[in-house]
Amino acid sequence: MEEKGGYPPECSSTQNNVSFPDSAAVGTCSTVTVQCSTNGPDTTLNVTNSTDGPVRWTISHGNMDTDSSLVFTVCVTDVLFHFIGQYEASLNVSNSTGVTSVTWSVTIDDVNQPPAFLSASYNIQVSENTAVQATIAQVPLVTSRAMADSTSNNVITVWDPDNVTAGFEFKGINVQSVNVTYPNSSKATTTDQSNLPVYLRNDSGPPFSFLTRSPLSAGVHLAFTLQAEDEQGLVGSNTVVTFVVSDVNQAPVCDSGNFNLTVGLIRKVNDSIYNVSCTDNDVNSTLSSLTYHEYTTSDSDYQYFSISSRGEISLEQRLPLNVTTLTYTVYVIDGGDLEANFTLFVDIDRQ
Ligand SMILES: [Ca+2]
Ligand SMILES: [Ca+2]
Question: In CATH, what is the architecture of 10-109?
Answer without folding.
Answer: Sandwich (2.60)
